[in-house]
Queue: 4 jobs
Job 1
Amino acid sequence: MKTAIYPGSFDPVTYGHLDIINRAAKLFDKVIVLVSVNPSKPNCFFTLEERLDFLRRSIKSGLSIQHCGNIEVDSSDGLLIDYFKERGADVIIKGLRAMSDFEAEFQMALVNKDLFYKAETVFLAADVASTFLSSSMVKQIAMFGGDISAFVPPSILTDIKIKLEQKRLEITGKK
Ligand code: PNS
């Protein structure tokens, strides 16, 4: 039984993440999607509860996930490697969109392996359609009223739009 952990901020989950989850679920017996803390992004826009809920709803809606029976969604506020050991996992999954992702991801893979020699990181190349896609882009487009329906599933679209519209009103002083 091979368990993979796919960690990230997921602020919010996009079709790019869901593509990686879907493909990982075909490759491994179990996939744990782990909402983790990225110290470089201390101010996530969506709360932890919202990010977990968006992930669970997106996976359940099954639009881009074919094998959701072996997918679990969880969170951790500690070191990824500690969670990895606790769960007896085999592999860390990371998606790579472009060479610009590579340096930081490569460094994290080496650090995790150094912290625990059994921690292998497997990189999945992003789907071509997702190479330009990021949670930050989605948030920015939605904040200014743009159409994000091509980037996030319908089950979470409205919630994302409402919260970002509120943020836009706050920023522009209209609220
Ligand atoms: O989606 P992100 O923000 O690129 O994901 C980065 C994340 C959350 C996977 C990374 O920051 C992480 O692993 N955080 C947990 C804390 C940790 O273990 N840090 C050391 C990584 S070498």
Job 2
Amino acid sequence: MMRIGHGYDAHVFAAGRPLVLGGVIIPHDQGLKAHSDGDAVIHALCDALLGAAGLGDIGRHFPDTDNSYSNIDSRILLRRVRSMLAAQSLAIVNADVTILAQAPKMAPHIEAMRATLAADMGIEPHAINVKASTTEGMGFVGRKEGIAVHAVALLTDA
Ligand code: MG
């Protein structure tokens, strides 16, 4: 059986933090405000994977009221989601991520994100696609107030 899932996340920019997306530190003058490291790519991806598995969402498994997740490296969360899928005998077929950001430019970092995410998910880089778009200046993304990310993932029986 095949199972599809969707995930979405958005975070507001905040000064004095590194910008971490897809497990990669991206040079920028601000990062994303969050209880964790603010990696909206990994958060959306985790929600897509958990959604496909019928396992709820990231907030249910890693609540921001739990201080053990304070400033946590989101790659740890992604690896935990991978373990949850394995425990359900589910394998990742592929995943596709769309980053919505007016700035900074994502293109130079896409391949590093793919390699990092693939390693944490235990899949080949060709099975994880990452792309980015601006919103041509419209909305909170266009005003450079924050970054939004959509993700879809397909699972199959392992
Ligand atoms: Mg988040």
Job 3
Amino acid sequence: MSPRQALGEGFRHVFGRLPEGIWSAPGRVNLIGEFTDYNDGYVLPLALPFSSMASAARRDDDLVRVASAQRSESGEFSVVEAATDKLRPGATMGWASYVLGVIWALRQAGAKLGGVDLVIDSDVPIGAGLSSSAALECSVALALHDLYGLSLSRQDLALVAQRAENEFVGVPTGIMDQTASLLCRSGHALFLDTRTFEVRQIPLDLKPVGLTLLVVNTGVKHALGNSAYADRVRDCRQAAKELGVPALRDVAPENIDDALAKITDEVVRRRARHVISEQSRVLEVVRLLESGRPAEVGPVLSAGHRSLRYDYEVSCAELDTVVDVALANGALGARMTGGGFGGSAVVLVGFAKTEAVTMGIAEAFAARGYSPPQTIEIVACDGASRVA
Ligand code: GLA
């Protein structure tokens, strides 16, 4: 049975009828532009071949009922039920809060919604820095959008999903993940200006030039709710305030030294240095890809990792091991990706070196007593869509 058929079957089992449709939304890996999205900056993610799927059907009343296709240990589906007009931020915990949060945020945006039955499944690794939560939010947002004939743009839907995460779940993330899940195209990375919402599809033609991207999941769970993410957001706001600009995005890279000299706190200064220099790295990667020089992207990725490791301090020993070992085995570039403190790294490598890099990382993890990492070769996929 295909995953779609299994989901339809799960829906029939839980709700005693067939879903009206199935919607799918991918996770993402960010190529470069880390922790810039809450500074109004640039990002460059691509969609992964892993996604969240939402099977859904409207109801005649105002109830939302949602179940995960991943059954509990007893083999039962547990169903979370709520009245759509009684949803309140903070009242629900766990994965269901992302689903209920989207319904709450759609209603806040003025959408006229009735009730809905949902069964969700996902193969996006959880806690791996690959946006499993945004994938879940976006699959549900698109399902509700289509079922209730709303006419929101994909950008508006991304904002709705982000609001669900920020206000309903309570994590102060930026807009990158939801935009990537909804707007990415296969064979491309998505250049997004998070201030203006301008997007550009950047060709990522690696295969013809003998290159590939690896995602290495360290298996170290990051907790985005972790106060460290919020601490960094606060540091960046403080830096912008001291510099008298609306956001760190407003500091031109050529003025970086003058700007940094004005920041009194040493830690805040390093946070700002990461964000301002990362902006230039995104533009540099876009320029290289658009001029057909993808191999030269490698050193820019590695420079990004050093900045995240020493200035932004969001890496960890396992991620540093992946990057160091990948480079020592001939990778062109490597960096941690996503929210940090664990999760995944992205590696740019030539075909001839892929095996050496993969083996080298596995051996280094074993030698250090870390759990085995998961390394996969990825291609850039399409964003969210209705699949049945
Ligand atoms: C998480 C957040 C994003 C972004 C990244 C870091 O994935 O959800 O908004 O801030 O971390 O770049």
Job 4
Amino acid sequence: MESLESIEGNERYVFERADICNNIEIRRIFNQHQPDVVMHLAAESHVDRSIEGPGEFIQTNIMGTYQLLEQSRLYYSGLEDRKKGEFRFHHISTDEVYGDLGATEILFTEKTSYDPSSPYSASKASSDHLVRAWQRTFNLPTLITNCSNNYGPYQFPEKLIPLMILNALEGRELPIYGDGNQIRDWLYVDDHARALLHVALSGEVGETYNIGGHNEMKNIEVIKKICSILDELCPSKIKGVTSYEKLITYVDDRVGHDVRYAIDASKIKTELNWMPHETFETGIRKTVQWYLDNRTWSDHVQDGSYQSQKLEGI
Ligand code: TYD
């Protein structure tokens, strides 16, 4: 709830806490709030956790999407024609559904075949298929976006970038899987949010749009960049650690680790006039600064107390 503090008092904002698998609650929320657009971002999203325990990923990402689609279909069927014309179900997905690009120069386009590697990406691929089927079979007006790796403020510190920033500040090891040469295409979260609005408001029904950051980087380069910004903004006071880079530790590789993901984002540029504003250089600086300025937020996430925070105004 602390992530939403800045908009708590806004009269255009309402918060409902519900499990997307709970069709009774979702039906009530649809009827009460009468949405024009549903943006479905609710998912289990961390590959390592999907390897440790795939069950929640199957439940939330596949069954949850199925329930949301069914509740959307029910709600949509009861709308008057004008509202039907405006309604959209927008499913937010990942480039990981396309699988591993390995050492090739290829980029993922919207036509690339699905080839997921992990329980996480397989569950997202499955949910994308459900969304397409609901469009084709039931004429639900759907949109799908597949984005590259997000980063920025408020990211849960199980993902690479926030984990490395917080570990460094606490003097803990910075674990790099394998040789650190895996490549990801980094997308600043505000750029992603802008792209999602473009698609939700102007995307063509039934279409898929890839969203990428034009920032392909090796993991080791990302971590070294974080260390150098931290060295500048918050020099280490840890004994024997003159630069945060000293904390880099190579650990066993992730099983089934995808070597490279990279997005061809030309469709969304040509058709919807969207381009990322941030370079990795500007985005990572803002991100590191945000984590330095918001230690209470990350403390509450790391100690688990965020889970019992009061739902203000409910
Ligand atoms: P992650 O943030 O988990 O995103 P994804 O697996 O969806 O790409 O990981 C990004 C990359 O960083 C990925 O290649 C795995 C690697 N990684 C590490 O080397 N060490 C870590 O501690 C983590 C969490 C990830």
